[in-house]
Specification:
469 residues, Arc Repressor Mutant, subunit A, mainly alpha, disordered C terminus, 4 strands
């Protein structure tokens, strides 16, 4: 058995000790191989310039997972190179000092060493070391490199085609993700619109609630998805639920319309929606529409026929229509009083002339509020004809109470849909009012301390049936 003396062991340990040179890794060796393959570009119009190499790298960097610190460092190193360094017979080597690099990048000495090693292992640069370990270089009068030691940028030129391909693929994936996210928005909004219609028609059941919960869960989980394959699966699932919900709604509305059509003469929806059988407006006051002569204007013997008085027409063509006379008091419409509709829809309050409005005040305020909601004058007239002035004002107040993100298109379009459903006899304002009350109570379960008298507070209807005055 061979033995070693203490002096021999000391010499072996000294030979294997740290030399102060840069340690090599497999990644660093591969980067050096790429640098050896650099041949440069021919001078002329088609020559590759440093800006093109840098643009290809920065376009692919986000998709290759390079950190912002690495991107900044490469961008800074390119500021020292010149176009003639990339031609045949030369090499793109730059030699900024370690002190200058620390000041420009805002890093410490250890951080700069770690960053330089990271750039080499990522295959972006390689280091050409001088005999004394310092970075320096010399150029001739034409600016061509004579001698240089420092950062060799040639691996970036070698990988230029790879960077361009990665950037193109990344842009295509980003565009695909943008298109998928737009489909998610369309499917989600369409499904919410279907659910709102089902709620207004009184069709909500356990199946509708389950469908809404599944759709919200899918839409929420897709916010954090980054892979295209997962996003496509989620979008397809959400769109399938939208189609199923639309088909279910159409079938339920069609099934509900059959008994209504068979019993149209039995007046199932109340007198305000009864089909018109006459083409004139009846009145509870016959003298209002009857021309009667005064006693002092009775014709005497031989006198001429007295001139008929000119009838007074309403100021608006829809006034008093809708199947009932216009209210002039503060009694209930759809079991709601004027002061309660103001509490549920506070946007009416600035247009009211009094703190205790009657229904004519509510209607007038709604006519002013429609400008803010984008409801045109003809559409407001159609609403008054289809529902009656008070119910049209209630419908407009409901629209004003909904948040901005509730509407798929605009508040005016939403109100237009309510008018069309009212004309078809499918609008259920009472159910919508009940839902608005529930939302209001959830937001403010404890009513505020009233500043009015006790009797007026009790008459407001907050605590229950009003106290007779």
């Amino acid at each position: 058995m061979r033995t070693e003396s203490a002096s021999e062991a000391h010499r072996i340990d000294a030979a294997r000790g740290p030399s102060g040179l840069r340690r090599l890794s497999l990644a660093m060796l591969a980067t050096g191989k790429m640098a050896e393959d650099f041949k440069g570009t021919a001078a002329g119009e088609g020559a590759t310039r440093p800006g093109q190499v840098l643009a290809a790298f920065k376009g692919a960097a986000p998709y290759l997972g390079f950190s912002p610190r690495v991107i900044h460092a490469i961008d800074w190193l390119f500021s020292f190179t010149r176009p003639q360094d990339w031609t045949e017979g030369s090499r793109p080597i730059v030699w900024p000092s370690a002190e200058l690099q620390r000041g420009a990048l805002g890093l410490g000495a250890t951080q700069v060493k770690t960053l330089n090693r990271q750039m080499v292992e990522l295959g972006l640069v390689t280091m050409k070391d001088s005999p004394n370990g310092k970075r320096y270089g010399r150029r001739d009068k034409q600016g061509r490199l004579i001698e240089a030691y420092g950062f060799d940028l040639s691996p970036l030129f070698t990988r230029m085609a790879e960077f361009q391909a990665v950037a193109a693929q990344g842009r295509a994936l980003r565009e695909r993700m943008r298109h998928l996210r737009r489909r998610i928005t369309i499917a989600r909004n369409g499904l919410l619109q279907i659910l709102e219609t089902a709620a207004e028609q009184g069709l909500c059941d356990a199946a509708w609630c389950m469908l809404e919960g599944e759709a919200r869960t899918i839409a929420r989980s897709l916010r954090s998805v980054e892979r295209v394959e997962e996003m496509e699966i989620g979008v397809a699932s959400l769109e399938r639920r939208q189609r199923d919900a639309r088909e279910r709604l159409e079938n339920q509305i069609a099934a509900a319309a059959v008994p209504v059509a068979e019993a149209v003469d039995s007046d199932p929806k109340g007198p305000e929606n009864r089909p018109h059988q006459y083409n004139y407006k009846t009145s509870i006051n016959p003298e209002q529409d009857t021309v009667m002569a005064h006693e002092e204007s009775k014709p005497g013997p031989g006198s001429a026929t007295p001139e008929l008085p000119t009838p007074i027409w309403p100021q608006e063509p829809w006034k008093g229509q809708g199947g009932r006379e216009e209210r002039t008091d503060s009694s209930t419409v759809l079991r709601i009083k004027p002061d309660e509709i103001v509490r549920l829809a506070p946007r009416l309050r600035p247009y009211l002339p009094t703190s205790s409005p009657a229904w004519p005040d509510i209607v007038a305020a709604a006519d002013w509020l429609r400008h803010d909601l984008g409801v045109s004058k003809p559409l407001w007239g159609d609403a008054c004809l289809a529902m009656g002035r008070e119910k049209a004002a209630i419908a407009l107040a409901i629209v004003s109470a909904k948040p901005e993100g509730h509407f798929t298109a605009s508040p005016g379009s939403y109100f237009h849909g309510m008018v069309k459903r009212a004309e078809a006899g499918n609008l259920n304002l009472a159910r919508t009012l009940w839902g608005l009350r529930e939302n209001r109570h959830r937001e403010a379960p404890v009513p505020p301390r009233p500043s009015r008298g006790r009797r007026e507070f009790l008459n407001s209807g907050i605590l229950g049936p009003s106290v007779p005055s």
